[in-house]
Amino acid sequence: MPARPTLWTVGYERLPPDALVATLQEAGVQRLIDVRFRPQSRRAGMSKTKLGLLLGEHRIAYEHRRALGTPPDIRSDYKHGRVAAGHERFEHYVEEEHHAALDELAAELVADDAARTVLMCLEDDAKECHRHVLAQRLGDRIPGLRVLDL
């Protein structure tokens, strides 16, 4: 019987870069997909270029997928504690405007040579982050998808 497809998610809000790497290594992650709309951070080492270099040093591939990020107008809902509204608006946005990006990622996750993949954003609590919606939408495309929040 084939292995059950698995997707990990992580928020770096409480993790400095070295702790993020350690968390990913412990889970056996091989590829990190950055799902921030803008892969910039005030935290040293967490912006796209530096994070990609750090992960590469530990043999973890880095990819940024802007299409799976939260645009500023929807991010405002999350920032102001309107999580349910943010989830609803983001689900509509990603399915209407970027369903092909979701389909592509779903196909990658079930490929025979699929890398152990984590979706990363800032928010520590996955249920309060748009990556929760992404995981649900991917679960609709991949029967039996197991989602593990790190």
Task: Give the topology.
Layout: E1 6-11, H1 17-27, E2 31-34, H2 48-57, E3 61-64, H3 72-79, H4 83-110, E4 117-121, H5 130-141, E5 146-149
Parallel strand pairs: 1-4, 1-5, 2-3, 2-4
Précis, in short:
With 150 residues, the chain is α/β, with parallel strands linked by helices. The chain has a 5-stranded parallel beta sheet, with helices on both faces.
Folded structure, characterized:
This protein is an alpha/beta fold and 150 residues long. The chain has one domain (6-149): Cobalt-precorrin-4 Transmethylase, domain 1. The chain has helices at residues 17-27, 48-57, 72-79, 83-110, 130-141, and strands at 6-11, 31-34, 61-64, 117-121, 146-149. Strands 3-2-4-1-5 form a five-stranded parallel β-sheet, sandwiched between helices. Helix 2 links the parallel strand 2 (31-34) and strand 3. It is globular. 31% of the residues are buried.
